[in-house]
């Protein structure tokens, strides 16, 4: 293998960063699919005249899972950037 990806597998610490970033990206997608999207689908049936009485609880639940997804995604991006920077060939 050539290029930055090929170098990473020769450095287990950097390879681990790439793998952890990938797993966190998958986790962010899973949170979206399992928690945010079902709430989105439920909300799409609402009208301004016929909102459920507990709409604030539903909104707060969506916001909670959005923040979880945001945190996981941000961690994935940080690990990916770290891996890329550490995996570069010296100039």
From TrEMBL:
Keywords: Membrane, Transmembrane, Transmembrane helix
Membrane-spanning parts: 12-31, 62-86
InterPro entries tied to this protein: Anthrone_oxy
Keyword Membrane tagged: yes
Keyword Transmembrane: yes
Record Pfam families: Anthrone_oxy
Protein name per Swiss-Prot or TrEMBL: DUF1772 domain-containing protein
Organism: Devosia rhodophyticola
């Amino acid at each position: 293998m050539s290029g930055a990806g090929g170098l990473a597998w020769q450095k287990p610490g950097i390879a681990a960063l790439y793998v952890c970033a990938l797993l966190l990206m998958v986790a962010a997608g899973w949170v979206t699919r399992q928690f945010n999207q079902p709430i989105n689908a439920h909300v799409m049936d609402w009208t301004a005249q016929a909102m459920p009485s507990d709409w604030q609880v539903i909104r707060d639940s969506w916001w909670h899972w959005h923040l979880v997804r945001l945190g996981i995604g941000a961690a994935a991006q940080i690990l990916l950037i770290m891996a890329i920077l550490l995996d570069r060939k010296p100039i």
